[in-house]
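Morning!

This is the sequence you dropped in the shared folder:
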Amino acid sequence: MDLNADLGEGFGHWTLTDDDALLDCVTSANVACGFHAGDASVMRRVCDTAAARGVGIGAQVAYRDLAGFGRRSMDVPPAELTAEVAYQIGALRVFAEAAGSAVSYVKPHGALYNRAVWDDDQAAAVVEGVRLAGGELAVLGLPGSRLLAHAGAAGLTAVTEAFADRAYTPEGTLVPRGEPGAVVHDADEVVRRSVGMAVDGGVLGADGSRIPVAARSLCVHGDTPGAAALARRVRAALEAAGVTVRAFA
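The structure's back. Tokens below.
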């Protein structure tokens, strides 16, 4: 199982994620590319540290929404979204390659991630942006999403993802953040859910039903309070359960 986290979610003097601590325990880093968070200095620093520690680097692409942290849904024309996705990948690629590494995958952030679960046009535009950027980049997304369907159809590696600290609907999608209980705050529960998804392939949904989860990567959100300590606990519990934790790329 791969363990990923959203990193580089700062801007100028403002910081949100504990990048150095998280890079000690995750195997893949979803690096903000400047549209929802991050700037050139932040991207460079995270890429340098990730490369030094052998952590995979992924471009976390988003709607152009710094003020809303990329969590507001937007109706971006497909051609424009394609160009913006490629632009973000290209920006991160410069710093990854300068650090002696490479961008190996792409993961949408926030509203774009959730929109690409069901919106064919937006999902296809994201995948076209990945293709425009070039290279054999994997695409990380929710199982059963239109995003992964389009990625597979385009010949890209589609990587299924689960969330350690997010609640699931009975349909297997994420409970919207505006609803009660959307984020799981109890650390013990996050750890139990993580092991259950990795070992048993399932998790309890918000209604108490069992939701099947087939994932190659597990996400711990970097902006969750105490995220680094939580990620360490999750990794230790996975390894104690006999799960090999390593990057999928």
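Headline: Strands lie at 2-7, 28-32, 56-61, 103-108, 138-141, 158-163, 202-204, 210-212, 217-219.

More detail when I'm at my desk.
O.
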